[in-house]
């Protein structure tokens, strides 16, 4: 039950002042106190706080005041290491930038002045090599941490990044391997000293899996007899099955003959493994003379090959794991020949 008590006192100049002290007592919670200069403000805060207590959403202001952004980053990285170990290194880089920039500020200070996040966002946009998409990934990494601080750890009342706009990204590019590039790149991967490279790249091209999905794959997720992999932790949260081609299944069997005892991940165990892979990947691109190409473009390559093979946008979306067709419309121009054949069949039937 909340009560508001008026308290009158004299300041150093002898002037009479009045403040209004709210006291909220509720079974199972420590008493809550807060003072205001106006009674209306005090009563409004009391109603809001009681409502939050009723819904189980109340967060003590002291939590946000005593926690810093650096503490939030450290806690989030522990969370990632436990739930998404394959993504730990990438998150460490992005969240590490926020920690270096704003780490000493309390969460309460950031929540009351989210403009500091906008200023940091603008600084990111001036960094060499940082596209709007890259800036948005940095914002997204911090936003997930803030969301956990609100929902999981109860350090904050709200995610301050909800009040900060994201840079507008250009239309998604479609960069895929042509026949010559594909042959050269796969040949370079076969010759790489990093033996799993050819399997990883071929796996990515033939399934369209995201980097995080591929590197988070565990042996228990793969059925080599049925030639299918089940993805449990996808970007949109949906579980989906991915068919595995016979050649990839054969390579997986060979790769699985020697397995690590300290991890059930098929490819990546820690940041050192990721660094070794990245080094081999860029070396293969250089040896194959494939320019302006990222690992994620292997996913675009898979989608483009599907489109050129006559797959519908719905079929491409199902393979890639998109909930809507909007994301796969970028590949529709590649299926013009297939679409033309459909129209020709319709015309022959009805207008011959």
Descriptive report:
This protein is mostly helical and 352 residues long. It folds into 3 domains: 57 residues, no CATH class; 98 residues, Orthogonal Bundle (DNA polymerase, domain 1), CATH 1.10.150; 162 residues, hpI Integrase, Chain A. Helix content is 52%, strand content 9%. The strands form 2 sheets. It has a 3-stranded antiparallel beta sheet, with helices on one face. α3 runs antiparallel to α4 and α8 runs antiparallel to α9. The chain starts with a strand and ends with a helix. The mean pLDDT is 85.
**CATH class category of the largest domain:** Mainly Alpha
Helix content: 40-55%
CATH topology-level name of the largest domain: hpI Integrase, Chain A
Coarse shape? elongated
| Main sheet characteristics | 3 strands, antiparallel
pLDDT < 50 runs, ≥5 residues: none
Overall structural domain count? 3
Q: Write down the secondary-structure element order.
A: EEEHHHHHHHHHHEEEHHHHH
Could you report the average pLDDT, rounded to the nearest whole number?
85
Count of distinct strands: 6
Distance between the amino and carboxyl termini: 82 Å
Strand proportion? 5-15%
Annotated CATH homologous superfamily of the largest domain: Intergrase catalytic core
Across the major sheet, the strand order is 1-2-3
Radius of gyration: 27 Å
**How many individual helices?**
15
Q: What would you say the CATH architecture of the largest domain is?
A: Orthogonal Bundle
Q: What structural class do you assign from the helix and strand content?
A: mainly alpha
């Amino acid at each position: 039950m909340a009560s508001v008590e008026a308290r009158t006192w004299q300041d150093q100049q002898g002037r009479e002042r009045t403040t209004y002290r709210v006291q909220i007592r509720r079974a199972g919670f420590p008493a809550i106190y807060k003072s205001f200069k106006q009674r209306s403000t005090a009563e409004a805060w009391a109603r809001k706080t009681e409502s939050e207590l009723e819904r189980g959403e109340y967060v003590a202001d002291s939590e946000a005041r005593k926690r810093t952004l650096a503490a939030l980053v450290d806690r989030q990285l522990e969370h990632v290491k436990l739930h998404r170990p394959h993504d730990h290194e990438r998150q460490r880089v992005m969240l590490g930038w926020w920690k270096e920039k704003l780490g000493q500020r309390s969460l309460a200070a950031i929540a009351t002045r989210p403009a500091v996040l906008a200023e940091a966002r603008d600084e990111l946009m001036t960094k060499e090599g940082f596209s709007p998409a890259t800036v948005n990934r940095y914002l997204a990494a911090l936003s997930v941490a803030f969301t956990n601080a609100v929902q999981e750890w109860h350090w904050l009342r709200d995610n301050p990044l909800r009040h900060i706009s994201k840079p507008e990204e250009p239309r998604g590019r479609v960069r895929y391997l042509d026949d010559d590039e594909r042959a050269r790149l796969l040949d370079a991967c076969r010759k790489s000293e990093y033996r799993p490279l050819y399997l990883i790249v071929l796996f990515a091209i033939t399934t369209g899996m995201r980097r995080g999905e591929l590197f988070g794959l565990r042996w228990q997720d793969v059925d080599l007899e049925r030639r299918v992999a089940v993805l449990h932790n996808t970007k949109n949260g949906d579980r989906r099955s991915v068919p595995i081609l016979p050649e990839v299944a054969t390579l997986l069997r060979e790769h699985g003959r020697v397995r690590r005892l300290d991890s059930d991940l098929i490819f990546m165990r820690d940041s050192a493994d990721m660094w070794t892979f990245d080094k081999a990947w860029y070396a293969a691109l250089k040896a194959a003379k494939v320019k302006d190409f990222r690992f994620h473009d292997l996913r675009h390559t898979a989608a483009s090959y599907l489109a050129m093979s006559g797959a519908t946008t719905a079929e491409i979306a199902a393979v890639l794991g998109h909930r809507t067709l909007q994301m796969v419309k970028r590949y529709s121009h590649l299926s013009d020949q297939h679409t033309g054949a459909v129209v020709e069949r319709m015309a022959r039937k009805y207008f011959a």
